[in-house]
């Protein structure tokens, strides 16, 4: 399979998953806030506070844009490849005036210097041809504008999500999902390398933990909702994996709560005036 074929397969997989389960990401984010009660959407929105014209790359069902609207942003826009997600976004009253498109971040349907800020919640790390995404972001962002991106991090050591992955990876390997994203988007050094080439300043890197603790059954549900790979498994495989996870989790916790261990990093930067 060529690189281009792999990219197309990955994008089609994502489109299908999100059309089959629109709003799944926003339900997950709402159900698993930080310890202080803020969601990762709110944390990310705070990084672009005061910006009026804001674009969301991979906007999904519009939940992050709705947070921005409630914060006072008035010139909102978003792109996503899943029509099912966008149907939910288009129906949100607070996004009645938002400029939403079924489009790819690699080919943004906006003029140069259109936005004061660009945000991206857990989507950049899944995108192919990320150099083009970064270049397009720089094109539509005004000089001095802010880019704020949330990316996934490795599950916390000793957490329920780490245990789940340890048990699930052999099954996932038998039914691999198409390659998704570019590993450079998941690290501080990698993101700095990618963004610097398009004229962005060095990033500010903040790591946050979501979800707190839960019973083994609650953390199991968190894991099933979080990982795309679970959607490729047969019902019998899911049932067997659940039994194994609960057995191990209860042994670790004496049947009580276990830390979920979901970690994100939020990278914030500005587009330099001279590029």
Automatic annotation (TrEMBL):
Q: Name one GO biological process term.
A: methylation
Q: Which residues form the Methyltransferase type domain?
A: 55-148
Entry annotated with the keyword Magnesium: no
Record-linked InterPro entries: Methyltransf_11, Methyltransf_Superfamily, SAM-dependent_MTases_sf
Classify the source by domain of life.
Answer: Bacteria
Q: Which CDD domains match?
A: AdoMet_MTases
What are the record keywords, sorted? Methyltransferase, Transferase
An example Pfam family from this entry, by short name, is Methyltransf_11
Query: Coiled coil located at which positions?
Result: none
Q: Which GO terms describe its molecular function?
A: methyltransferase activity
| Protein known as | Class I SAM-dependent methyltransferase
């Amino acid at each position: 399979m060529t690189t281009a074929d792999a990219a197309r397969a990955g994008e089609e997989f994502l489109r299908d998953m999100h059309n089959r389960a629109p709003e799944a990401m926003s339900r997950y984010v709402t159900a698993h806030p930080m310890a202080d009660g803020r969601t990762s959407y709110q944390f990310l929105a705070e990084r672009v506070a005061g910006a009026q014209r804001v674009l969301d790359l991979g906007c999904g069902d519009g939940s992050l844009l709705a947070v921005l609207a409630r914060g006072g942003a008035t010139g909102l826009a978003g792109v996503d490849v899943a029509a099912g997600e966008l149907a939910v976004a288009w129906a949100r009253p607070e996004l009645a005036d938002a400029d939403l498109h079924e489009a790819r971040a690699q080919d943004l349907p906006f003029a140069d210097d259109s936005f004061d800020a660009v945000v991206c919640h857990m989507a950049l790390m899944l995108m192919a041809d990320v150099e083009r995404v970064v270049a397009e972001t720089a094109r539509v962002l005004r000089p001095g504008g802010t880019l704020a991106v949330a990316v996934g991090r490795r599950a916390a050591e000793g957490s329920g999500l780490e245990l789940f992955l340890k048990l699930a990876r052999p099954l996932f390997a038998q039914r691999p999902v198409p390659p998704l994203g570019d590993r450079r988007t998941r690290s501080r050094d990698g993101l700095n390398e990618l963004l610097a080439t398009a004229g962005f300043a060095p990033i500010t890197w903040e790591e946050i933990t979501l979800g707190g603790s839960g019973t083994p059954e609650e953390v199991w549900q968190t894991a099933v909702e979080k990982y795309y790979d679970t959607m490729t498994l047969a019902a019998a495989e899911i049932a067997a994996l659940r039994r194994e996870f609960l057995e191990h989790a209860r042994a670790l916790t004496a049947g009580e709560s276990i830390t979920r261990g979901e970690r994100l990093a939020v990278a914030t930067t500005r587009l330099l005036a001279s590029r």
